[in-house]
Write a structure and sequence with these properties.
Blueprint lengths: L3 H26 L3 E7 L20 H9 L1 E7 L5 H10 L23 H7 L3 E7 L22 E5 L11 H6 L13 E3 L2 E3 L7 H14 L6 E6 L12 H6 L24 H8 L7 H28 L6 E7 L23 H4 E7 L8 E3 L3 E2 L3 H8 L22 E6 L2 E6 L2 E4 L25 E4 L15 H17 L5
Parallel strand pairs: 1-7, 1-8, 2-10, 2-11, 3-4, 3-7
Antiparallel strand pairs: 2-9, 4-5, 5-6, 8-9, 12-13, 13-14, 14-15
């Protein structure tokens, strides 16, 4: 017979084993934290994890993400500019489902759910830091497009295409005749239902990182979803801390000053829009210097991403956090970005406008160091996160699938104004023309083979740069893809 001491010892051992097994099962079933990092206008060739990146690029912290997870070499956004592409990303749907004009301003309908709403319903705490842009209803708190009204518990950032990197004080906004443009925007950041002002010597990319780290360190009783939406490397690209300008040996340009009589392109003298317009076109800054400013801005962005990754590690969150990194569209022809070997860039449906850097890491779940060559879409981000969080999606109009299970025969479609494109397998058909926004494109821009709306067919496995138009020699393939596009539109013409 067992004596009392032996019985007690056995109870302790069994209890320890029971609770140990119970804890292990709990950890296996826990929902991961999710960190979604969105950057702005990064060039396809300006992502070091890609094998054929530009040789002057150095993004060691983006490399850390790649080494810890999987990189996608054929990841697509749903539009070649920020507002509609972010709508598609956040909803898992092609935004032209509800935006019939396929415009810059799709907005966010009340009955189209976002990633944040799905996760909040599943018990997540949610926060967005940085850029919030659905192309309409800017600078307003009481609209669907404002983050607090589509699933976020906390928001700090701005509601527009762009924001000055330095000028975030209330004082500068009070002195500026036009502080609230859609791109030419400065002054205090929006924070929840009010504003937060910063000294004009604090840099916006640093501010967003500081606030993200503060959020990561805060006490939370639930898994978190943090969207960190940097506006780097969007214009105005020359605004970078001095140490990065020194590194790339480029002279600084003075910051905007409201009392200046500087004007440009018939803008009001002393207006911020005059300053913004002048320095977002090639002319005041020439090509080589624009590239140096871009590299400096990108270098600063990468350092900040590294600070966020370090904070995750320091807080012991790295092993239980899914991280997704993506650019909102292709590199801009105006900022000095490079998209080689892809044609064109932001503003068009050529590959350079819609194929972007993307990576995902999730320790123990996503293969480390893998390069995924199957094509995927940013609409896939919502289903991927939902699956990880154990959320069953019942909305049949979601266009995305799980990033971890790509389908090389799926049909992807795009609409952008009067241009469109479709991809199935290695084949892409498009009527897109050449677009680059304001002024002229930089010397680093790869000019497309066509500037008209004729049909163009490409085999992207052999010709990612879209240099060999096969439309005339393969009319049956043209018809097949044209039918695939038209069938998609017919089947998905639901009104929202």
């Amino acid at each position: 017979m067992m004596n009392q001491f032996t019985k007690l010892l056995l109870v302790i051992i069994l209890s320890a084993n029971f609770f140990g097994c119970s804890q292990k099962t709990s950890n296996q079933n826990e929902k991961p934290n999710v960190l979604l990092i969105i950057v702005d206008d990064q060039g396809y060739a300006d992502f070091e994890p890609f094998e054929n990146h530009s040789p002057e690029i150095s993004t060691p912290n983006m490399n850390r993400l790649a080494e810890a997870g999987t990189v996608f070499t054929e990841a697509y956004t749903t539009a070649p500019v920020c507002s509609p592409s972010r709508a598609g990303l956040m909803t898992g749907k092609n935004q032209f489902r509800w935006d019939e004009k396929a415009s810059w301003g799709p907005g966010l309908p009340d009955n189209v759910k976002t990633i944040a709403e799905y996760l909040k319903e599943a018990g997540y705490t949610t926060a967005r830091i940085g850029k919030a842009d659905f192309g309409t209803n800017y600078h307003k708190f009481d609209v669907r497009e404002y983050p607090l009204n589509h699933g976020y518990d906390y928001f700090l950032g701005f509601s527009a295409h762009a924001h000055d990197y330095w000028l975030t004080s209330e004082e500068i906004a009070d002195r500026t005749p036009d502080p609230n443009g859609t791109s030419a925007h400065l002054g205090p950041l929006m924070e929840n239902k009010g504003y937060k002002s910063y000294p004009d010597d604090e840099y916006l990319t640093d501010i967003f990182t500081n606030e993200a780290i503060k959020y990561l360190k805060s006490e939370k009783d639930a898994p978190f979803f943090l969207t960190l939406a940097y506006n780097s490397v969007h214009h105005i690209i020359h605004e970078v801390p001095q140490k990065y300008l020194d590194k790339y040996q480029v002279e600084p340009i003075h910051n905007y000053e409201p009392d200046s009589m500087e004007t440009f392109n018939n803008q009001k003298p002393g207006s911020y829009s005059a300053y913004y317009e002048k320095y977002t076109r090639l002319g005041a800054i020439q090509d080589e210097d624009m590239r140096k400013f871009y590299l400096a801005n990108l270098d600063c962005l990468d350092d900040n991403i590294g600070r966020v990754l370090d904070a995750l590690n320091e807080q012991g969150l790295d092993q239980e956090t899914m991280i997704i990194f993506v650019s909102d569209n292709g590199g801009s022809p105006l900022t000095g970005a490079k998209n080689a070997p892809l044609s064109a860039g932001k503003y068009s449906l050529w590959e350079g406008g819609i194929r972007v850097p993307m990576a995902i890491s999730w320790p123990g779940k996503v293969k480390a160091g893998k390069v995924e060559t199957n094509y995927v879409s940013t609409t896939d981000i919502l289903p991927t996160i939902s699956n990880a969080a154990g959320i069953e999606l019942t909305d049949e109009t979601i266009d995305g699938i799980d990033l971890l299970h790509p389908n090389q025969d799926r049909v992807l479609v795009w609409r952008w104004g009067n241009t469109w494109a479709v991809r199935k397998g290695n084949w892409k058909l498009t009527n897109t023309n050449e677009q680059w926004g304001k002024g002229r494109p930089s010397d680093f821009y790869i000019k497309p083979i066509s500037d008209d709306l004729s049909l163009k067919l490409f085999n992207l496995s052999d010709d990612p740069g879209e240099r060999d138009n096969l439309a005339l020699t393969m009319p049956e393939k043209v018809k097949e893809l044209e039918n695939a596009y038209n069938n998609w539109l017919e089947e998905n013409s639901r009104k929202y």
